Amino acid sequence: MKNTKQNLVIQFMKKRKIMFIFLMTLSALVILNLFVFVMALHEYRSSWGEQEKWLEKQEWHPSEEKSKGCIILVHGYGGSPFDFAPLLSSLKKEGYHLVLPVTPEQTKKTWAYGRGKVSAEEYQAWLERIVAEETKVHGQKPILMGFSMGGALSTIIAAQGNIEKLVLLAPFYGLPHADSFLTKTSHVLSFVLPLVPKISKAKINDPHGYKKYETGTYFVCLSSFHRLQELKKKAILKAKDISCPTLIVASSGDQVASYSATERVAKKIAKHKLVALEKANHVVLYDYGHEKIIEEIVSFLAKE
Fold it and tell me: Strand pairing partners for 146?
């Protein structure tokens, strides 16, 4: 009888402990989500001053006698046209018509909790329309340049054969570590924590470049991240169909986009050149060696 009472007491204490842990975890999630909500609301309503202009589409027209055609530059996940800012003056000098669209749902202009609704197919259709419009305006195929998420999306579009040349900067074909596990984990986590604040505005090793850089948003929407993963899978499959000259710039020290995955995809593209970096992280145009990258891009575009 005594042992039975002791067992009942032990079971009760265990259940009480489990309930306490559950309630504490639930409370922590509620507080964390409330904190993130307030931060997201502040981001959406606040003005970013001079940086605000980069959250809109950017376009530059050269003089008619100097025009060399059109370059469409597609920025990265959670970035903005500012991703390409260090490169623009060099491209302007060369006389290109530059089009820098804002990728849907990737800046603070979209309420953070409203992201993740644009499907991979809709992203593809969005860029297809831009390519078709610029082809019609110029009467020739445009050059397509994509960074990170924009690189994955540009890979898909280039495989259709409607691009004159392709430039991929740190294209996203997967995370460098535990890509499958983290993707599955984030899918489950998205139900209890849909938004995750960035711990830094970007992965940049050069402190001077980091100071200059401005992100498009300070939040990662996990539903939107799943769309990125869908684009990645499609890009990997479509890469073999790319026939245009392609320049790929990637760093072995990239902590966001897998360098080994980029190497594998590069081998599928017949006319490719892979420029490997060592000291840079992910946002290569703001990191160590960015001068070399700009020279490589200008030289690549100048070749017939």
Answer: 74, 168
177 in the same domain as 106: yes
Q: Quick one: 90 and 162 in the same domain? A: yes
Q: Which amino acid is at 147?
A: F
CATH label of the domain that carries residue 151: 3.40.50.1820
Looking at residue 245, the DSSP 8-state letter turns out to be: -
- What is the pLDDT tens value at each position of the chain, 304 positions in all? 556 656 655 665 666 677 767 677 767 777 878 888 888 888 888 877 777 889 999 999 887 666 788 999 999 999 999 999 999 999 999 999 999 999 999 999 999 999 999 999 999 999 999 999 999 999 999 999 999 999 999 999 999 999 999 999 999 999 999 888 888 888 888 888 898 999 899 999 999 999 999 999 999 999 999 999 999 999 999 999 999 999 999 999 999 999 999 999 999 999 999 999 999 999 999 999 999 999 999 999 998 7
Domain count, the chain: 2
| Global confidence as pTM | 0.90
> Contact 98/91 with Cβ under 8 angstroms?
yes
- Report long-range pairs for 60-65 (Cβ below 8 Å, ≥24 apart): 60/88, 60/92, 60/97, 60/98, 61/97, 62/92, 62/95, 62/96, 62/97, 63/95
Pairs from 226-230 (Cβ < 8 Å, separation ≥ 24): 226/116, 226/183, 226/186, 226/187, 226/190, 227/116, 227/118, 227/119, 227/120, 227/123, 228/77, 228/149, 228/152, 228/172, 229/183, 230/119, 230/120
Is 38 in the same domain as 152? no
Residue 14 structural domain: 1-46
147 and 263 housed in the same domain = yes
